[in-house]
Inverse folding.
């Protein structure tokens, strides 16, 4: 019998992979080799190795852009090899490290001004990637917040949507995410991570921290709204596919999503995982989000009921809802609609009209 986890991955994940920059042919060829979930990581790592080889060949020939683009593809394949894969944690860590290294190799070729920023945080550290637009001395800053299974290594092309519009980006691995997942756990008060990031960036002369926005995807949509409620330096917020009450979503979540949350929340079992998921809710705090807030949602979302987006906007003092009837989770099946909307909307709220 086919492995139901592999079947579910093939059926539901292609739009997300492609939206983030995985070639659709790579998705089809790689998943065609996978019969059991235990094979997932190795198959995607093989595809990543191929792109790394192309990158090194291009480097040897002095073809910097080609090398950088191949390293981005390698980073994405390494990331997606391990993002929900908990079969062997050592192999998972190794693939994640390869994703980190491949992305920084891409930065060297495509955006050498990109910076790795380490943030002191409760006896450990968080990590973010800072990128700035080519034009603009002190651009506004957009914090990009991942969700449950995403990380900064997934965001190169997402960052570009904001960079080409004249905004700097800071992609953050917060508690329980990316490089921080070994030393921290998912927690409801994500604003503490955003506060630490802004404190770390506060004295930079090449960013305008009077104009800060935050954009979160999936569970990051909850994190974005929560951060805006408690961090006054945020001037505008976009939540894409985020929950109003993650605990209420629990019964309908796929098994892999539950397993991943349980692991990164530090829960002992599913019952404790569900209790911790129930702490991730914006109930009772949305009245504190005085900033302009845009909620983007897909009515075909299979993880979070679209009625939760309506509930969120109903309680926001200054909220706007854009509901795409055809959109899936995070609307990754229509990135050409939601991505320009999110970037244009937040630019309009962060850009001084005198800047033109």
């Amino acid at each position: 019998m086919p492995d139901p986890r592999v079947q579910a991955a093939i059926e539901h994940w292609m739009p997300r992979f492609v939206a983030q920059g995985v070639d659709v042919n790579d998705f089809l060829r790689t998943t065609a080799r996978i019969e059991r979930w235990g094979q997932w990581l190795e198959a995607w790592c093989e595809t990543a190795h191929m792109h790394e080889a192309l990158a090194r060949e291009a480097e040897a020939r002095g073809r910097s852009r080609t090398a950088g683009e191949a390293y981005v593809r390698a980073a994405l394949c390494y990331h997606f090899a391990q993002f929900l894969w908990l079969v062997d944690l050592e192999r998972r860590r190794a693939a994640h490290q390869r994703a980190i290294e491949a992305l920084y190799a891409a930065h060297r070729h495509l955006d050498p001004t990109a910076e790795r920023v380490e943030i002191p945080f409760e006896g450990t550290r968080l990590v973010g990637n800072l990128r700035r637009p080519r034009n603009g001395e002190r651009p506004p800053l957009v914090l990009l917040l991942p969700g449950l299974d995403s990380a900064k290594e997934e965001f190169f092309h997402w960052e570009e949507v904001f960079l080409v519009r004249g905004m700097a980006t800071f992609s953050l691995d917060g508690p329980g995410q990316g490089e921080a997942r070994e030393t921290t756990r998912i927690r409801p008060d994500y604003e503490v991570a955003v506060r630490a990031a802004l404190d770390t960036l506060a004295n930079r002369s090449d960013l305008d921290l009077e104009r800060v926005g935050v954009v979160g995807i999936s569970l990051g949509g909850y994190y974005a709204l929560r951060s805006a409620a408690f961090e006054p330096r945020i001037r505008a917020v976009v939540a894409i596919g985020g929950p109003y009450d993650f605990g209420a979503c629990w019964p309908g979540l796929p098994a892999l999503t539950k397993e991943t949350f349980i692991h990164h929340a530090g829960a002992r079992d599913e019952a404790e995982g569900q209790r911790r998921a129930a702490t991730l809710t914006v109930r009772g705090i949305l009245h504190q989000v005085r900033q302009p807030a845009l909620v983007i949602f897909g009515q075909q979302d299979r993880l979070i009921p679209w009625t939760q987006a309506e509930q969120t906007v109903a309680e926001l003092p200054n909220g706007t809802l854009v509901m795409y009837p055809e959109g899936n989770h995070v609307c990754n099946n229509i990135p050409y609609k939601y991505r320009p909307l999110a970037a244009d909307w937040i630019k309009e709220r962060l850009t001084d009209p005198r800047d033109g």
